[in-house]
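Q: My labmate handed me this sequence with no annotations at all. I'd like to see what the chain might look like in three dimensions before we decide whether it's worth expressing. Could you predict it?
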Amino acid sequence: DESGLVNVNSPNVPLLGKALLHAGVEEINASRLLARLRDYVDRDHKLSLSGAERFEYRQAKMPAPANTLLATPLEFKKVLGFDDLITKAQWQRLLPLLSARQSMGYNLNVMPGDVITTLLGVSKSKSLKVIEMRRDKRISTLRQIEAGIGEIIRLENDSLLNTPSRFVRISL
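A: Here is what I predict for the chain of 172 residues:
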């Protein structure tokens, strides 16, 4: 269920930046990637700070940005400077966490442990506790998580989804 993954089409949402950092991308490189991704997916041709638009792509002899949402997370690699700002090992850690789904919100009931760690800002052991909790009972509020892991979570309750989505990823 892709509602448990990080939306690559939301460069303004902090979770994508946190996921880049979690994968080991340096903060300055993550910031540049997000700025360039923002320019890649926005509908205008105005250059943002640290971003890249048609002129910069032309200078680099690359196809112009799509100026529309990414169809798949793999399209992220078409962003100017991608290979210079993220290593292959970082990309391999990041890719399984990404989705191009268009819905807003996150489903902790299907979320991989690395995304839980990143989204909630908790340790790996606490993210495993969340996974344990959801085996017994569906997670529908942050209070359940806070009670289960003994930590206050800074996330809006209305960003939680607790029903399956119609977007599913099949991995081989």
